[in-house]
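Hey team,

Filing this mostly as a record. A colleague (T.K.) asked me to run one chain through the structure pipeline before their review meeting, and I want the input and output archived in the tracker in case anyone asks later how it was produced. No errors, nothing strange. Just documentation.

Input sequence:
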Amino acid sequence: FVSCCSCSCSNFTMSAAIERENDMNSRDDKGLRLYDDKDKKCNTEAQERAKYFQLLSKVKAIIAPGLATVAYYAFRYLIPGQAEAFDSKLEIIQNYNLGWIFASWYVVFVVRGYVGLNANGARAPARVDRPDQHVYKIMAKTGDLADAPYVMMDNCGEAGRFNRAQRAASNMDESIALFVSGLILVGAVLGPVAFALAVLNGYGRVTFAHLYKEDKSKRGAGFYPSVVSEQLLGGFILLLAIKGIFGFSTF
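Output structure:
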């Protein structure tokens, strides 16, 4: 048993050392990510913002509302009794001028998306890789510490696993208030739709947390279901806002 334990610990130590070496080889002397190409250039903030703006514009203005509309009519006509239930609630929303609540939520949703875009735009030229969210510097005017490397998040070994797991939790925290409030709004009108979105998001978040802890490059398999659920939620709320303000039989 002692021999097996020692062998296992030795293998883990060797693996951690290789992981550390690979991580350091991808950084410069200040601890920042190396440039992406041999010309030592990276995308400018304007280029990154344009990339994310184009992506988010398509998702928020076309893809999510379109999919939400299709899903709305699928739930409406494929689940018995839902058409009458949806219409009775939409009539209340219109009669009491409640569509503006949904529209207000959607405005906050779009603003939150822009704030994320703004941060992601600044990330590439700063050469700060994930899971780092900040760069810390020792504020010394003179001496050896004046040009010391930046203080970055440890991304290797057990400490790295913890940091990535913690980042996955923080990532969920950043959107949970908006997501839950949106679920309440959608659930009050569309019932099972909100439940389906909650299940999809839960699957995505749990998968994201486990994979991010293991390796940041694998986190996409959980991140995308989470994003899909959140963007679809926004699409449903935009649909309900339009129906509530302009009439639930608009389309």
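Quick notes for T.K.: The longest helix spans residues 45-78. The helical segments are 2-25, 45-78, 82-95, 99-126, 157-190, 192-214, 220-246.
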